[in-house]
## 1
Amino acid sequence: MIEDDDRIRMSLGLALEDEGYTVRSAGTAEEGLAAQRADPADTVLVDLMLPGIDGFECIRQLRRDGDVPIIVVSARDDTHDVVAALEAGADDYVIKPVAVKELSARMRALRRRARPAQASTLTLVFGELEIRPQAGEVLLHGELLSLTRTEFRLICELAEHAGLVLSRQQLLERVWEYDYGDDRLVDVHIGRLRQKIEDNPSVPSRLITVRGLGYKLQR
Amino acid sequence: MIEDDDRIRMSLGLALEDEGYTVRSAGTAEEGLAAQRADPADTVLVDLMLPGIDGFECIRQLRRDGDVPIIVVSARDDTHDVVAALEAGADDYVIKPVAVKELSARMRALRRRARPAQASTLTLVFGELEIRPQAGEVLLHGELLSLTRTEFRLICELAEHAGLVLSRQQLLERVWEYDYGDDRLVDVHIGRLRQKIEDNPSVPSRLITVRGLGYKLQR
DNA sequence: CGCGGTTTGTCACGCAACTGTCATAGATCC
DNA sequence: GGATCTATGACAGTTGCGTGACAAACCGCG
């Protein structure tokens, strides 16, 4: 929720939590946008009258970053504002004060329409290597590889953070869901993965060792 | 547009045509539903106060037939009605009299969210395999297969997410509506389904096992 | 209400594939 | 040159999957 009026933020936030939502709120567009980038919510409520960046611009920026459902919650009951907000990329526009039940129903209705957050992760491409987390497929030179589950989860994890070094411990946590574990285990699986995704496994070009730190997938 | 008041139908219809829409209208839910079945519109506007079948029931039936965007245009400004209409499957609710510009903007906003051409889920085609969820038919090489209810729901679920891996737990939830369940159960039914839809059931080419993850229907 | 046939869920078993461990060999750094 | 880090082959234990058999539940029908 991006809303500058503290009281509304408080009361609406609590009311929505009663409805079962988890609410995070920001007092300015800048804060809200940053929060949405850092850790995206699955629905955004935004006021139009904001200090600094105004609501319309805020909507446009949210839209540029992704296709999160956006509902305007505004005190202004004016056709021009409604049209402008929807044009900017909002999905719905309700007038304050709003019945929480109605807002909640509108959020649910909108959620039904929202694309199941896949557009971004459908295919990750790294040159000749393509990874489709949803489809459980990895292709090299256009050909389907047969990876084991561990190999698959490992490469997905690396691909989601392509270019960043992940330590063995991080990988153990995320792929194996171990709290601790033997670093060698990661090595072994990296090795097996290289056999499959590297053109020359002994001289890795995609799955890179960063000595002392961990591994990364070359962008 | 499903609306029983002739004057509103007239004026709103003309106004929307000015906005560039092609409008067809019906005076009762029965007429409107029939029209939508015969030649689906890409957005439906519906009043709540209708003679015969009322607006809520009309929405439910439209929803059962497909996922056309539905906007309620009602004179009643009542939270209960809004919530009920949205629960029934409507996507938006505006109060009469409504500014045409606003209605038009809401229609456009909704259209952005509408799944492109999934309205035509009449037949899902996978090579020689055709699935008609609405008709309850599955054809292989043009011939009608006789599937059990479970097999049918299973293949529909897989077909709706063709190319994506569905885990056994996901399938249990969606096909069986179990919250938990035995993974073997899914295996067994997948096996039975393969007997019917695979040319060589022991070497599946359509209904693919993704080891450690689940199953998917090959696009 | 009872009767056939069909559908459904459970189970146990066997095969194939996968996993983690270890030991050894190799690479890199200072 | 020694210390540290990484790669890899082999192996035994485990897991995941497919399947046939079977009993319970269901269904249409007389």
## 2
Amino acid sequence: MSTRVLVVDDEEDLCEILQFNLEGEGYEVDVAYSAEEALKKDLKSYQVILLDVMMGKISGFKLAKMIRQEMKLSVPIIFLTAKDGENNTLTGFSLGADDYISKPFSVREVIARVKAVIQRTRSEGGYEGKKLTYREFELDDAGKQLIINKKVIELTKKEFEILYLLMDNPSRVFSREDMMNRIWTDEVVVMARTVDVHVARLRKKLGKYGHYIRSKPGYGYYLEHE
Amino acid sequence: MSTRVLVVDDEEDLCEILQFNLEGEGYEVDVAYSAEEALKKDLKSYQVILLDVMMGKISGFKLAKMIRQEMKLSVPIIFLTAKDGENNTLTGFSLGADDYISKPFSVREVIARVKAVIQRTRSEGGYEGKKLTYREFELDDAGKQLIINKKVIELTKKEFEILYLLMDNPSRVFSREDMMNRIWTDEVVVMARTVDVHVARLRKKLGKYGHYIRSKPGYGYYLEHE
DNA sequence: GTAAAGTGTAATCAAAATGTAACAACCATG
DNA sequence: CATGGTTGTTACATTTTGATTACACTTTAC
């Protein structure tokens, strides 16, 4: 799942710069030039909202309050304020809070914040401690390990990601391309056969359960129906 | 009883951001844009007061003195100070269990402090000597030391914090970023490799138990399953 | 049944991640 | 203003993982 970010600011230049850079980081970026425009979006579909405090009729604060109080959304919000701070190097931390950045800010800084916020919400919400199960498999996301009948099986990152994908959507067939898109970042391009090799290694580690992962010739891989 | 917080600062944006975020944390937040305005409030009804040092006619310090000496209140005060190079004119300032944060700060930091202060005043008297154990490790939070088979091992602060984090969540994998965020809270940014070095030093002190701390390539560090 | 396409997997080399010593900066303390 | 302890960074050694290729084997299409 790609991470979606919404930028709400009436300065078009700024929006473009942010959009360009955040997209460069692999985020899917949407832009709104006013609070009204932002309200037309499906706000709950974003992982982070960057919000200018000073804007046309409806201020960023009002919008934030609407988002929180009326729409009852808990999307993390990062405020952009015009008060110029000097050098904001920042890394504070506390769970569940929004944040603010003073203009002028460096793009680097914004990206750092966005990453931090996403990181935080990831490890906070249902993501942490998430355990996927399929037959005798128990995939422990926090521990990045697989447990089969109380036995721990260590997986490499790629193996973990492949198994995670499959167990998250059992009985769905994933083409090699699907997997490449989901598991490998855009900059990295690998051969389709590479997927096969990883699946083979994963199967080997699964021992007698290896055949739970099945291949459908011409289509891809999937988990056998329970 | 809900926890009441008063924010006193002449920067309206900042006040709003703090109010918004603290309310998001479940606090009841009141705002005053000047010392005079603050004095009209029922100051003893707050559990914490966030106070800007630099403000109009009456400075934050003066207000604090009035609160402490004339009104004889012991409400915890957290000062917000403008960060200037030759700081520490503050260190001599000991009006009790107060705290101060330099601007520019991150909202997360403020919230963390507020939580800490409230926590502290709540559990006053009852000393919290939390002890974590994992296999033959016994981590004494009060003494900030590790005991293995009756033997005391002195740890540096960072070592202690890393071990504490791991022992508090055994078998969970912490990325270097996780650790940086949790352990280097203040406005310090360190390289990810710095975490590695600390882990290495910690392992060395743990001697033959060093391998209890394991690394998972691509993910981070965790405590070996017992 | 046979050819073509698709898949399984061992072996190999390259790349990434980790372990750690060494050094420099920092800081509290006497 | 030395001093020892702590901390952050770098550089290099080592380990682990990852990508590709080659060849054996299976499935599919006709």
## 3
Amino acid sequence: MGQLSRLIEPVLLFLLARKGHSYGYDLAAELPAYALGPEPVDRTTLYRCLRQLETHGHLVSHWDLPTAGPARRVYCVTASGRQHLQEWMRALELFSGTLDRLLREARILESPVEESLTT
Amino acid sequence: MGQLSRLIEPVLLFLLARKGHSYGYDLAAELPAYALGPEPVDRTTLYRCLRQLETHGHLVSHWDLPTAGPARRVYCVTASGRQHLQEWMRALELFSGTLDRLLREARILESPVEESLTT
DNA sequence: GCAACTAGATGTATTTCGCACCTAGTTGCA
DNA sequence: TGCAACTAGGTGCGAAATACATCTAGTTGC
């Protein structure tokens, strides 16, 4: 397996909407809690996803120069981004419904086998 | 959006496990009912996924030559394939749990906004 | 003075995916 | 007879997504 879609775009939008604003390195630390799939997300994918959301107008960024440490590119969700997040959530609701049905019906397949006595 | 992972591998394994055996064109017709995502799945992707599952030993195929119509490559799930399906289902259970939590927490974000009076 | 950590970025190879296109058998109809 | 529509499978290629390696640069602690 392994190729559970990264699907990090909606998670990033969600985290940013909830936190108000954040930056890549920080989001990378929060992502595992919501990452859809077990494999850790590559930082490159995350940075590029943020940049792409910005070019699409869903985020805006500015440089934050903390008194200590390297500069951070801080992102905020725009109105367009909030709308995009809601579209994502509608899509994910459907996704979730289909997935649950699949899991339910797959469990029915598994249960009646019981070949433990044939050993 | 659009890139809700195709995630068709577990669906194909599930459908084949339930039906006993089937072929690409038929599975393509059943897929939309379980497709995780709204966009229709390209037939190329489906055929290639079946071939890949076969090279990994999760499926076996033989040619069926019906009295009417073109030949069909009929697939059956192997023992390895059934095991693989169960692994997939375990992964998708986790996936579903995380997804539901994301949806729940995102709904909390949306609800309290209510800017309808500011127009 | 150097290792470890924070923070962001690029460049490139690989993988995945979708589109266009092809073969071939059958059915229906004009 | 000819051809459109449908069934059934497949290939080749380009675009997009992804992963890996590598780079710069500031700070902290030893």
